[in-house]
Amino acid sequence: MRATGCLADVIRVGEIRQFYTGGATVVRVPVTVAKTLAKGRLLVGWVSAQVKVLPRKPLKCFRCLESGHVSAQCVCETDRSRLCYRCGQPDHIARLCSATPHCPVCAERGKAADHKIGSQNCSPPTTRSRKAKSTAGRAPNSGPVRPITREPVEAMETVAR
Question: pLDDT, tens digit, for every residue of 13-70?
């Protein structure tokens, strides 16, 4: 924080996960701070941690689990919001799941589904917009519209190892 001049209240640190090479976590900081940190290392207590700037993630709809839009603009009839990201089964979370990976989005399209939802092997359609699909015969706005909020600080994810 001293080298970047960043305030502690804009730094968000995720859960530390253990890997064979040591622990890792995701730290969310403003873009200017992330660019400064990416040039060197981050001192955490007595440890000098490596910093990697993660690539920007594409838009992901948490309702239908497809890419290219967010749930506020989703027109898909299928609601997959309660499915596990690992096995595709309902009502539990991927972090606690030990089942075999299965992607319901790819399985529905007849593609190989032996991977987690949203992994690099996953290839769901990338765009679905309201303008592209006809709304004739359906009730307009079947659910509440959630406002999109803008944060004053643009965030960039980084990984400290």
Answer: 888 888 888 888 888 888 888 888 888 787 778 888 888 888 877 788 889 888 888 8
Report if pTM > 0.90.
Answer: no
d(CA 156, CA 57): 10
Q: Which two tokens stand for residue 34?
A: 């992330």
Q: How far apart are alpha carbons 76 and 53 in whole angstroms?
A: 33
Fold entry, domain 59-125: HIV-1 Nucleocapsid Protein (4.10.60)
Q: Where is 34: in which H helix or E strand?
A: helix 31-38
> Is residue 157 within 8 Å of residue 28, measured between CB atoms?
yes
All CATH 4.10.60 domain ranges of the chain, comma separated, are 59-125
First to last CA, the chain: 17
DSSP, res 119: S
Both tokens of residue 111? 């593609």
